[in-house]
Specification:
Helices cover about 40% and strands about 15% of the residues. It is of the alpha/beta class. Helix 9 links the parallel strand 7 and strand 8.
């Protein structure tokens, strides 16, 4: 999809920025460690699974590359994408896969609508595999709030946030000589990815960052509340 220049683009992380996704991710990670016969990480470590690519988090917790890593990813994706195991927050009594054991943060739809009304292009840029991200965005109505959804590849060739941002830029015909973008996210991966791509990073404290994480990874600005999103994103795109 091509857009007219100059573009002003707000890139939006998904987990921890648009959606409160920890219930589903943690439940699926827990299932994975149980089926592997490994001790389940403590709560603080489980929370660190939100944001980075799943293989990075598994590796950080001692799962070696090779057959066991491939099995871990298969188990996780089974519960996250296929197996309706968890209670649906939107429809009590109905079971859903982990990716839908999730909810949109209050106020996000209103902030995205304000940005679109003011002429900004919106794109989800997530390290979640793109097919999974599309299902989540469709289910929660996010797809209709943005101009595109861009994610990691299933074959692990596009994993890091800077790779996803560059993929998004290539898809929309981004021209760094005349177009402007800001990355909005809640984790170090978003801050690092933005820096590598030469764009400002807006950190969100309502997500899953640990204390000082956003500052230590060079956030251009940090907001505490969802209702600040529109105004500060606009400031960073001036």
């Amino acid at each position: 999809m091509q857009f007219q220049h100059p573009m002003r683009i707000v890139l939006l992380d998904l987990d921890g920025t648009l959606t409160q996704s920890h219930p589903g991710i943690i439940a699926c990670v827990t299932k994975t460690f149980e089926e592997l016969g490994r001790p389940v990480p403590d709560h603080a470590e489980l929370m660190r699974f939100i944001g980075p690519a799943i293989v990075e988090s598994f590796a950080r917790n001692g799962i070696p590359e090779g057959e066991e890593m491939e099995r871990a990813v298969r188990i996780y994706r089974h519960y996250y994408s296929d197996e309706a195991t968890f209670e649906d927050p939107k429809h009590p009594g109905h079971k859903v896969a982990g990716r839908l054991y999730n909810s949109v943060y209050e106020g996000i739809p209103e902030q995205l609508q304000r940005l679109r009304d003011d002429g900004y292009m919106l794109a989800v840029a997530t390290c979640k595999p793109e097919p999974q991200a599309l299902v989540v965005c469709d289910y929660f109505g996010i797809t209709d709030m943005v101009d595109g959804v861009y994610g990691a590849s299933m074959d692990r060739s596009r994993l890091e946030k800077d790779q996803v941002i560059q993929y998004c830029f290539a898809s929309i015909g981004f021209d760094s000589t005349q177009d402007h973008a800001v990355m909005v996210g809640d984790r170090w991966t978003d801050m690092d990815g933005a820096r590598k791509c030469g764009i400002p990073a807006l950190g969100c404290r309502w997500g899953y960052a640990e204390p000082h994480e956003l500052e230590e990874h060079g956030a251009t600005a940090i907001i505490d509340r969802v209702e600040q999103l529109h105004d500060v994103a606009v400031e960073l795109l001036q």
